[in-house]
Design brief:
mainly alpha; two-stranded antiparallel ribbon; two-stranded antiparallel sheet; disordered C terminus
Amino acid sequence: MKRGWRWIWCALVFCLLGPMPAPAPLIYTPGEGWSYEPVGAEGRWRRARAKDQLEVAQQAFERGDYGLALKAARRVVRQWPLSDYAPEAQFLIGRCYEARRQDERAFKEYQKFIEQYPKADKFEEALQRQHAIALRFLGGQWFKLWGYIPFFPSMTKTAEMFDKIVRNGPFSPVASEAQLNMGAAYEKARDYDLAVKAYEAAADRYFDRPGVAADALYRAGMAWLKQARTAEYDQSAAGRAIATFTDFLALYPGDPRAAEVQQHIASLKREQARGHFEIARFYEKNRHWAAALIYYNEVLLLDPTSSYADEARRRIEQLKPRVRPPEATAQARP
């Protein structure tokens, strides 16, 4: 039995130490790192000139071999970073990741292209492709862990993408839409303060584009309206919404949304009146007559035609005799 095990061990040692044909799928190239090479085709895709190497990448991309296209395009960028072919190669890297549905990585590669080659011919196209990617994330597409595993959607990260697009080209054809979409992403994240800031920035920066400015101001008002209606009614947000909607009506009275905005203002004022009415009732209940009168009068100023206003007038008349003017109080003192 022991002799049998000895023969087995000898056979294993011979197999491990003896010469065997071994494929080498991983190739290390100085300055390029490790890359996978199919057996029998090691290095055949490499070229001695940047132009020829880029052609290899483009042809591989056209036939859907994105792995080879990535390797060849990366080699152009690393080996010939100052050549006329490097910008096209960097742009192609982004295209490859986008074709492989690795949108976050594609966005970053387009960002490299924009930062490194700001005068390249495809600068505007890179911005448009970044915007298309960000729109997919705005629509609910999930970000991926390590570039492969769907992890979670993130409106905050999406807003940051739109912010980069605007910074890359603040007056490019997609910039105004990206600025508005930044606000939309923050709205989806329920960060209404940042949403309003994004919309207000769009209204200020693109004031010479009436359609964009009007849409931005309307969206800012709606963001304040949503914040006012979250959880407990936010009186300060309601006031900002009314002010923003009022500006919208003053600047764009002919906008198709004007009637809707007027309804929002009326609804907000009615809600403000209700809030002040409840505060007045609280003070009245606790026998703080002067404070109650102040808030009942606020109800009349905010919404004089509401049912709250009718009740406020009645309460004011009943409370007036209980609130003595300062002069009368001073005369009554001994």
